[in-house]
Every structure is written in structure tokens, then in C-alpha cells.
Design brief:
This protein has 279 residues and is an alpha/beta fold. The chain has 13 helices and 8 strands. β3, α6 and β4 form a beta-alpha-beta unit.
Length: 279
């Protein structure tokens, strides 16, 4: 796996020259081998926000959000993700209650815990996982992770609140070692790596694009943190990411998956994403 990550053809290391051998990322990887990581494929959690956006554009209940979520499960998804926002422009707060009573796989609620309404919603529904995301008001989509150093005390309080209610907690972070170190001090169960930078740089240089994520994953493992990932992962970049990242437990994918489903059909699309994760 390390050979593939660093752009090697499968020969002996002495016969190859690493393109990134002088970087700090390479030095970290070389000096921190990962041991005892599960080889099982990561779970696919389908973010259904875009289904809610389509429904809301005309009013009524077409498409039926609950039915789509159940179909995603039936087609093989191991989880359902929603990200309600205060303006309810896609997922409505009532949707969460409707989904909670029907979903059989893992239910993941993402959002900004600085909103009391969000906290109340999560506690009332007790999902398998809550993912804490530092959204700002009116934000179109998530575009950065938590500053876990600056907000360590606050996050520690939130993590404890949700864990005491029996809810697994994941904190949305950028692939920066200092942020992961600080995240571990909050007591969180997992972190979710924000993968927009990887996706953006994938076609220019995929080996370089994934390096900071490999470093982040190895550090998370050393600290005992579970590892999720999400944002702009798609059928083109998902396999390389999942093959490169040690100990990846879950990916949350919405926009790309729903867009692909317009052409490929929902069942076929989910099967294709699951295939990308199988290695």
C-alpha cells in the first residue's frame, strides 16, 4: 500500500526513488508504520440532503425522503447521513424524527452544535453518531474543519454531552496533525477528515493530494481515534483514497452520489460506490 501511495511500481524499495522522499509527510510515514488496522472495507453512509432539496423545490413529498433512505439501505448502504441547517432549506427538523423511526442502519446527524436547536434535535433522536461541523449561518456547504485547539474546551463539553446520551461523536477536521492531536483531548470517539482538498487536487497529483490524509490517519490511529471522511468524494477519486488511508471506517457521500444516480439509477450508483470501497 505504501508503494502505491508513493507512486512506486511494485519493485524493491532500493530500486525506486520516492518522489516525495524529502517531505515531512514522507518522513512521518516512514517513521510511523501502522500496525493492526482492520482490512475491512469502510462503510458507506449516504447523505440524503440533496433528495430533500429536490423535494422542497416543489413542496409536497415527492421524492419521499424516508422511502429514499430505506431504498438506500436496501441497495446496500450501511448508513444514512443528514445535515439539517437552521433555515431547513433541505433537511427539515421533522425529517429527522421521521427517519429515526424507520432507519435500520447507522443514522448519522451532522451539524453545528453551537445551535441549541441542533443539540436538542440530536438528543431527542439519539442517532448512532453525531458529527460536529463548524458551519456558519447561511453557509452553502461545509468548507472547513474545527479549530480544535481554539475550541478544545467547548468541544470537550459537547462531546461529553452527547456521549453521556449514548451517542458516538465524530469531529469534522482538516488533515492537520495539530488539529488531530487537539481533537483527541476532547474525548471524541472519531474524527471526520474534510476531503475537499484531496478531491480538488486529485487529478493534478493524486499521490501528493492524499499524503496529508495518510499522515492524519496514522496519527489518529496512534491516538486511538476512529476515522471517517467526507466531502467531494466520488466514483473517480474514492477508490484511491480508501486504498491509501489506513483504518478508514466510514465515508459520507451525498452530492456526487445523488448526481450520479440521475444517470445511473440509485441502486446501480450505490453498488458502484460500494465497489469502489471494496479492496
Amino acid at each position: 500500500m505504501l508503494y502505491r501511495l508513493l507512486g512506486l511500481h511494485r519493485q524493491t524499495a532500493t530500486q525506486q526513488q520516492y518522489q516525495v522522499k524529502n517531505t515531512a509527510e514522507y518522513q512521518f510515514i516512514a517513521n510511523h508504520p501502522v500496525k493492526n488496522l482492520s482490512l475491512c472495507m469502510a462503510n458507506l453512509s449516504v447523505n440524503i440532503n440533496k433528495i430533500a432539496t429536490l423535494r422542497n423545490s416543489r413542496g409536497g413529498n415527492n421524492p419521499d425522503l424516508v422511502k429514499v433512505a430505506l431504498d438506500c439501505e436496501r441497495f446496500g448502504a450501511q448508513g444514512i447521513t443528514v445535515h439539517p441547517r437552521p433555515d431547513e432549506r433541505h433537511i427539515r427538523y421533522q425529517d429527522v424524527f421521521d427517519l429515526k423511526g424507520k432507519i435500520k442502519t447507522e443514522f448519522n446527524i451532522e451539524g453545528n452544535c453551537r445551535e441549541q436547536k441542533f443539540i436538542d434535535l440530536v438528543l431527542a433522536n439519539s442517532p448512532a453518531q453525531v458529527t460536529l461541523v463548524p458551519d456558519t449561518e447561511g453557509q452553502i456547504t461545509s468548507n472547513h474543519g474545527w479549530d480544535t485547539i481554539k475550541h478544545r474546551d467547548y468541544l470537550k463539553e459537547m462531546v461529553s454531552l452527547f456521549q453521556n446520551a449514548g451517542i458516538r461523536v465524530s469531529i469534522f477536521v482538516d488533515p492537520i496533525t495539530d488539529m488531530i492531536n487537539a481533537a483527541a483531548t476532547t474525548g471524541t470517539d472519531r474524527i471526520e477528515l474534510y476531503t475537499e482538498a484531496y478531491a480538488h487536487n486529485f487529478y493534478d497529483n493524486k499521490e501528493k493530494a492524499v499524503l496529508s490524509y495518510v499522515v492524519a490517519a496514522k496519527r489518529a490511529h496512534e491516538l486511538g481515534l476512529g476515522l471517517n471522511a467526507g466531502h467531494d468524494l466520488d466514483l473517480h477519486n474514492l477508490r484511491y483514497f480508501s486504498e491509501s488511508i489506513p483504518g478508514l471506517l466510514e465515508v459520507s457521500i451525498g452530492h456526487a452520489l445523488i448526481s450520479d444516480a440521475l444517470y445511473l439509477g440509485l441502486e446501480n450508483t450505490i453498488q458502484r460506490y460500494l465497489h469502489q470501497l471494496s479492496h
